[in-house]
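Running log. JK asked me to keep both predictions on one page so they can be read side by side. First protein, sequence followed by its tokens:
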Amino acid sequence: MTWMPGNDPAPGDASACDVIDTLIVPRARDLGGFEVRRALPSAKQQMVGPFIFFDQMGPAEFLETGGIDVRPHPHIGLATVTYLFDGEIHHRDSLGSDQVIKPGELNWMTAGNGIVHSEREDAARKKTARKIFGIQSWVALPKHMEETAPAFEHHGLHALPVISDGGAEVRVIAGELYGARAPVSTASETIYADITLNAGGRMPIDATHEERAVYTVEGEITISGDKFGPGQLLVFKPDDTITVTADAPARFLLLGGEPMDGPRYIWWNFVSSSKERIDQAKEDWKRMRFDTVPGDTEDFIPLPEK
């Protein structure tokens, strides 16, 4: 593949344990007919690059009940990143953003010093059988950006660059990979890509980004002779070029970037380098000091007691 440099795996290559630093198998939580698997943060690893939260939503199928109905809630110190494989979610926020996200599109909401948003399904859609499958992740903001003004970006299916050679297809969601750069504005060096391998396909992952991981979505991938099924986060050791192959069609996400500039505290929907800033956000939400979401003001998620 001229656009993806790297050597083919060969007999005698190091086993996967020599290139994988941490293997995380997230537990499934049932939210009432709707499963969520949380890979980050975990007891083994808090972040990969700027990624500090990583949830798999579904796959699930709803009839005329259930579905996505997340009431308005606040964030600080992070950017939410929503990417779907199937289904639709209606995003509204306190900036006045009103956007339906569909598969292959990107919602990137920078919370900065404070934002409120809701994530729901439209009423008409709830009357039909439908599916939902996707990833909700957060990236922590560097210290000098934690108190930036909130912002929202949406990039449609055709705005995200796709590179392909027949054996693999790569959609670059954020950052740059193999000469293709996504249009979203990131606060730190970030890579995020949706990669599909055909039977016999391969994907070399070089050491350009210091912290890298793959999250397996569908099918089975092979790394240095070891196979990994869906729903696993594989965090790689730095400085090694890794080749991912597939005997049958498979899909995975590549994520990572530069290490964060110090540890982060995370409590509920708040992320910060300062515990005191999180305490302030708790008090602000409790006393209703955050802005409201236009068109979605009748209800909200209260501050957890613990």
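And the second, directly underneath as requested:
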Amino acid sequence: MKMNKHYPVRYQFVDADGIRVFYREAGDRARPTLLLLHGFASSSHQFRELIPLLADKFHLVAPDLPGFGFTEVPAQRNYRYRFDSFGETLTAFVDALALKSYALYVFDYGAPAGLRLALHYPERMTGLVSQNGNAYLEGLGDAWEPIRAYWADPSAENRQIVHDAVLNLEGIRWQYLHGVKTPESVAPEAYHLDTLLLERPGNKEIQLDLFLDYANNLPRYPEFQAFFRQTQLPALVIWGEHDPFFIPPGAHAWKRDNPNAVVELLDTGHFALETHVEHIALRIREVLGDEQSQ
């Protein structure tokens, strides 16, 4: 599969939910839309290699969530950084772009954010790709333990423990490289960009608030699972099996609610696109029904 050079990526902003949302877009809007939702600590930048591999057959749209990437949140907006807010912002975003039909690619934070969007507009959904995007309790790995302690006791001390473990170059680099057999294949600018953007004024406090609010996703899991059961959408669940945060049982669990879901584990870590982007692109073409993928 070769990169199609006739579909350049467009880097744009749109006003939605009182926010100036940055997004990457490529492909013909007449094609089926695939909405790409990033996770912590990244942004739409994580899809930089995937987008050109799919833009000949899909209309790709990849926004930066508030607090990430290049999306701008005015101070007077008084934005509450929580996952319910992300769902509301994504709803406003798809409306601003007049997206009436789309499949979702969800990763990490993009899963609870995007699945809120799916619940709001279930009739618009055409398919799902979950790349280490969790929706089951058994998918939470041991790496969550410091954050679980923070959920149980959101003290200044526990908040500082999470801050020191995660919100620095070493912590971000570890998330990119843990479980990767060939770390030299992971572009260092990815985790350096994430770390640089964390240093913006107030951003680390935003991230700590989101870590705390992640606990509120767990009670929503049954709603997400009911959506899978009721819709039986074409679904590709393709995970890096060495991810310490979202572990393989969380991938296999999708089969309980959608027996037709394609579940595949890759020999890599959390940021599977860094090492397996061409394979993931091929599998998206196959599972989402692109008969001209070869």
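Observation for JK regarding the second prediction: DSSP finds twelve helices and eight strands in the chain.
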